[in-house]
Amino acid sequence: MRQRGIPTAMSLTRGGRGLEASARAYLSQVHPVFMLPPVAASLFGGVLAGEFAPGPGAVHVVAIFAAVYTAHVKDGYVDFHVRGEDDEHPLTVRGCRVGLAGSTLVFVGCCLLLFLLVDPLAVALTLPTWLIAYYHAPQLDTNPITATTGYPLGIALAILGGFYVQATTITAVALGFSLVFLTLLSGIKVIDDTQDYAYDRSIRKRTVAVALGPTRAYDVAYGLMLTALFAVVALAVARVFPPTAVLAALAFAAVAAVARRANPEVATMLLVRGSYVFLAVLVAAVWFEPLSGVG
Fold first, then answer.
1. For the residues of 65-79, what is the DSSP string, one character each?
2. Would you state the CATH architecture of domain 20-170?
3. Is the peptide bond before 242 cis (omega within 30 degrees of 0)?
4. What distance in Å separates the CA atoms of residue 236 and residue 244, rounded to the nearest whole number?
């Protein structure tokens, strides 16, 4: 008789057997802090378009969720089973592969629905989110540029895709917001990576902090964030964004000023939450001053 909790070749989980243990293990791969922003970005793109059709919007949201879930399962698989970086992981190798197959199947199903409900371009804007998610580890996360921009680029594509499935076009408004979030979140990611500077350097993982050093990485990070905030102000002045979007820039700038004096861990926490406020204020700005016809 096998000892309870010892994984076998057919086991999905490492901490128990049965449906309940498997459900807990797969649910543990849902990380709200990192999954909510891409899902919210998809919905934000739909809000930008003005009129919101629930069917295509819901399909796109599920596709984005499936892509981010794929990223978490693949990262866990690589970090624990391949690199040996993590101390624990709830899924066996087989469990990871089953999880990846399931999330990919959901994503493919959503792409087929987008093809039928919208058009091929909707699929073309959505597909790269899964490619970024699947290839983040161990391919994209070893290069300073792709390691930094992977997650922000996924969010930028979620905004564009969410907008396109509603409007079936890309305007200056949607493109502007996508580029702003790509730049802003890339800055936050650089700060986040400085937390692991010593370890990443020891395993020769080239993040921006490893490539440039922590001090210069901080300068790059805040330079990116300031560029994004100035872009918001400039686009608001040009009436591409609603004028009240400036309030979002001011709110995030206040958070960034406090984070600048904190250590990387606290700074990351503040900046991530500041980005939620940034998004919330932008949603309110667009909701009360819709600009779907601009651009």
1. HHHHHHHHHHHHIII
2. Orthogonal Bundle (1.10)
3. no
4. 8
β-bridge mates for residue 91, sequence order: 13
Name the nearest CA neighbour of 173 among 56, 277, 290. Answer: 290
Paired residues of 13 in beta bridges: 91
Q: Read off the pLDDT of residues 96-123 as tens digits, 9 standing for 90 and up.
A: 999 999 999 999 999 999 999 999 999 9
Residue 294, classed as helix, strand or coil, is coil
Cβ neighbour number for residue 213 with a 10 Å cutoff? 14
Helix, strand or coil, per DSSP, at residue 13: strand
- Note whether 182 and 156 are within 8 A (CB): yes
Taking CA 274 as the corner, what is the angle to CA 270 and CA 276, rounded to the nearest 5 degrees? Answer: 125
Per residue in 29-65, pLDDT (tens digit) is 998 888 999 999 999 999 899 888 999 999 999 999 9
Query: Which DSSP helix (H) or strand (E) runs through 212?
Result: helix 208-212
Task: Please report which helix (H) or strand (E) contains residue 91, including its range.
Answer: none
Q: What is the dihedral of CA 167, 36, 233, 285, to 10 degrees?
A: 60
Do the Cβ atoms of 236 and 243 come closer than 8 Å?
Answer: yes
Q: How far apart are the C-alpha atoms of 152 and 189, rounded to whole Å? A: 8
Query: Which pTM was predicted?
Result: 0.90
Burial class (CB in 10 A: 0-12, 13-18, 19+), 33: exposed
